[in-house]
Amino acid sequence: MEEDIADKIDTTYILEQFRHIERVGIIYICTEDEQDEDDWIDEDGRHIVILLPYKMVKQMADVRPLMLQKAMERLGLAA
Description:
With 79 residues, this protein is α+β, with helices and mostly antiparallel strands. It has one domain (3-75). The chain is 37% helix and 28% strand. The protein is built from 4 helices and 3 strands. It has a 3-stranded mixed beta sheet. The model has no long low-confidence stretch (mean pLDDT 90).
């Protein structure tokens, strides 16, 4: 992953937004490839893989709203 993309993925921001939800891990993957997003549950809790479109992320100044929106959708918190 290019450094300009890596610096935009602010997982600390997302962690702060969902600190009240226990035993959920969110993994972001920035990719150009079409892949399926994935969820699984194990002894550590629920794990959610969220794909971010590389080209879109590269053009965005602030990716956090997109990250937050996708996380809320996957957690069932979107309006």
